[in-house]
Q: What sequence folds into this?
């Protein structure tokens, strides 16, 4: 519980832990735009190491990390290939068009995956043709915001294809550590299949602010300059990086608990009342997707009634609810939610 609330709307709602608050208060700081904030430098070094990349950049948000990856690896008029459901296309307010002036080639996905044949067919093959845009980047998202995890063979196949045409791959790994935990492999194994990787320290890792962009040093140094252009050069950012270090060290290794809670919640919903709820798919990470089936309360009323009992959930999207488990939602909280759902139906 977060204070009096059980907040299941997202893992973006997480508060910093007590240890993070203490580390933030005690953080050694400097001016990071001069490159002399020791805590930011330590965070960037640790972040690069954990995913096996040459360099890392601490940025304000996942959106900023994704956009810097695009800005640093494309020229205006270039094309990038990505899923039509991904965050960059649907939830970054058109930033790639605005900031990088790139053309997005959006492909449909099935089970979170763009078809390899379709990616191959979409790559521009005649860069010398003055009519043809140049395919400059392929973006993947793992795990995606539908909670789907891309397995290593799929990532390897996309990488192999991209390499054949000398196109870099960017991985939006906002929930990279959830994906790695679900697959039971180190995050570095997934990160190896991309040139640049963004991951969030906020969300399930509980840091209050911040994401990391990692990759080859020249790309990261270009991104550092672009970050300054966007006004994202932060001064005594060590206060935030201190929480980020704990996110990396302590929170990446406990995500399985959230995944177990999500499976526990899905199972409980599936059996509650016989057929009150219909689970969309078995949770792979910390997200549970379900529809109301025979439940005797309408979707909008349910959101309202739960709120009256200090339980926050988002309204259903096209009839589908998404509940997200995280550090501040315990197994006991889930038991309480199930109990309340039972009470509201009677
Ligand atoms: C898959 C994915 N990528 C990127 C982001 C952007 O992160 P931020 O909200 O920190 O900009 C999110 C945020 O929810 C996300 O789910």
A:
């Amino acid at each position: 519980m977060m204070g009096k609330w059980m907040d299941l709307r997202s893992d973006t709602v997480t508060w910093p832990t007590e240890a993070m608050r203490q580390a933030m208060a005690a953080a050694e700081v400097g001016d990071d735009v001069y490159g002399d904030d020791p805590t930011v430098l330590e965070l960037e070094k640790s972040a690069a190491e954990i995913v096996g990349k040459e360099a890392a950049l601490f940025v304000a948000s996942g959106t900023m990390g994704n956009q810097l990856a695009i800005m640093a690896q494309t020229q205006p008029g270039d094309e990038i290939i990505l899923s039509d459901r991904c965050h960059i296309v649907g939830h970054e307010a058109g930033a790639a068009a605005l900031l990088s002036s790139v053309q997005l080639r959006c492909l449909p996905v099935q089970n979170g995956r763009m078809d390899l044949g379709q990616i191959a067919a979409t790559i521009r093959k005649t860069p010398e043709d003055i009519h043809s845009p140049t395919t400059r980047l392929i973006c993947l998202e793992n795990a995606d915001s539908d909670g789907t995890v891309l397995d290593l063979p799929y990532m390897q196949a996309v990488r192999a294809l991209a390499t054949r045409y000398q196109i870099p791959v960017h991985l939006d790994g906002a929930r990279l550590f959830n994906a790695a935990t679900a697959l039971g492999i180190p995050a570095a194994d997934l990160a190896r299949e991309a040139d640049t990787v963004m991951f969030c320290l906020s969300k399930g890792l509980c840091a209050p602010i911040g994401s990391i962009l990692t990759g080859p040093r020249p790309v990261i140094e270009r991104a550092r300059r672009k970050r300054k252009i966007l006004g994202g050069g932060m001064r005594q950012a060590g206060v935030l990086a201190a929480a980020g270090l704990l996110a990396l060290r302590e929170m990446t290794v406990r995500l399985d608990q959230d995944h177990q809670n999500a499976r526990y919640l899905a199972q409980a919903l599936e059996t509650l009342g016989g057929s009150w709820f219909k689970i969309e798919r078995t949770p792979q990470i910390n997200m549970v997707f379900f529809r109301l089936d025979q439940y005797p309360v309408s979707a909008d009323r349910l959101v309202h009634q739960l709120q009256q009992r200090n339980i926050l959930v988002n309204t259903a999207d096209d009839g589908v609810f998404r509940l997200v488990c995280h550090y501040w939602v315990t197994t006991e909280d889930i038991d309480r939610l199930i109990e309340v759902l039972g009470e509201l139906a009677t």
Q: What stands out?
A: The chain has two domains: 15-251, 254-344.
